[in-house]
Design a protein that fits this description.
By secondary structure, this protein is an all-beta fold. Helices cover about 0% and strands about 55% of the residues. The strands form two sheets. Strands 2, 4, 5, 6, 9, 10 and 11 form a seven-stranded mixed sheet that branches.
Length: about 120
């Protein structure tokens, strides 16, 4: 069974930076698309970034140019670097792993951007 354990996040002022990591276990990391989604209060679940098993990356429009996703197959982990944070980035962030019809989610981590 795939398990995803997130770390990072927290409280930051507007314009600041935060980073996440997500450790993957229970299957073959390299075949999974890995990424991050987020959900803000009263809003729909939203794609933040995906790093596919094939090596490409995709970002949600609202974070392009500010966030960077990366994956490390030696550590079975995926990372999210978030720069130039805005109050509207406030949300619970979820690590995601997907392969074929199988989707797995981390426990969720709160990010709050506020002065």
């Amino acid at each position: 069974q795939v398990q995803l354990v997130e770390s990072g996040g927290g409280l930051v002022q507007p314009g600041g930076s935060l980073s996440f990591s997500c450790a993957f276990s229970g299957s073959i990391f390299s075949i999974y698309d890995m990424g991050w989604y987020r959900q803000a209060p009263g809003k729909q679940h939203e794609l933040v970034a995906i790093a596919t098993s094939g090596g490409s990356t995709n970002y949600g429009d609202s974070v392009k140019g500010r966030f960077t996703i990366s994956r490390d197959k030696a550590k079975n982990s995926v990372y999210l670097q978030m720069n130039s944070l805005k109050p509207e980035d406030t949300a619970v962030y979820y690590c995601y792993a997907g392969y074929a019809k199988f989707d797995y989610w981390g426990q969720g981590t709160q990010v709050t951007v506020s002065s």
